[in-house]
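Re: [ENG-882] Designed sequences occasionally contain unexpected residues at chain ends

Forwarding the minimal case from QA. Structure tokens:
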């Protein structure tokens, strides 16, 4: 196993160990979360835990069901005890860019539900400023695509509808929307940019996740040894 995979696996399993019995948990999408879901399933079987979950994608739901985790419909769940997800970028203040897995809207919904929101990454996802490595993803209602692209171009960027590598045509999210990748470069005022994007008619959500993280668990490998670093943050309060 490559060092990056060992780092992800250790960080994800560390997060899965933090989930208490009788919890309702949010489970994100992506390769890092696969390790967390499998470890949580092992704990449920070995420790006879009573845990249910809301997932952020069909992929996550299928994997959770395969691993003995009862899944719930987020339509009927207003809050959760804890949630675990990955990220594409994490800055020193715990702000995130997410969405390369094309599940950002459901991820943002689940991020607003828990008492504790934990992000799990390997050290390659750490950045000094958001936008260093990845574009900002924007989920768009298909009927509004041309309008949204026009507004985004006025912000001085070139939006790109994400193509699906497995077929001819664009990526379509689990909610039936399109993903537009936007290369803003370094994001100097993330709060302002988030608001500008959200104000465009037809935008469902964007990949800037700001001020919502309680803890980031970072996996790394040094001198052949996998280890984790844990950082806590003071998040904004969502009032339901």
């Amino acid at each position: 196993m490559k060092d990056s995979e060992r780092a992800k696996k250790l960080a994800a399993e560390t997060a899965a160990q933090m989930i208490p019995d009788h919890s309702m948990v949010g489970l994100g999408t992506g390769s890092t979360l696969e390790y967390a879901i499998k470890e949580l399933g092992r704990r449920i079987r070995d420790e006879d835990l009573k845990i249910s979950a809301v997932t952020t994608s069909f992929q996550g739901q299928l994997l959770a069901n395969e691993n003995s985790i009862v899944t719930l419909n987020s339509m009927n769940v207003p809050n959760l005890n804890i949630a675990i997800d990955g990220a594409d970028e994490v800055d020193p203040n715990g702000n995130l860019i997410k969405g390369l897995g094309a599940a950002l809207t459901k991820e943002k919904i689940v991020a607003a539900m828990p008492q504790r929101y934990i992000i799990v990454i390997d050290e390659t996802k750490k950045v000094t400023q958001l936008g260093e490595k990845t574009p900002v993803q924007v989920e768009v209602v298909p009927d509004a695509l041309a309008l949204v692209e026009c507004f985004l171009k006025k912000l001085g960027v070139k939006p790109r509808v994400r193509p699906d590598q497995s077929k001819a045509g664009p990526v379509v999210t689990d909610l039936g929307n399109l993903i537009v990748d936007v290369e803003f470069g370094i994001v100097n005022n993330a709060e302002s940019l988030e608001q500008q994007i959200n104000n465009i008619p037809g935008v469902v959500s964007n990949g800037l996740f700001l001020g919502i993280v309680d803890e980031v668990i970072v996996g790394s490998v040094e001198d052949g040894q996998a280890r984790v670093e844990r950082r806590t943050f003071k998040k904004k309060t969502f009032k339901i």
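QA comment: On inspection the terminal residues look reasonable. Residues 3-126+210-232 form a domain with the Rossmann fold fold (CATH 3.40.50.1360). Proposing we downgrade this to a documentation issue.
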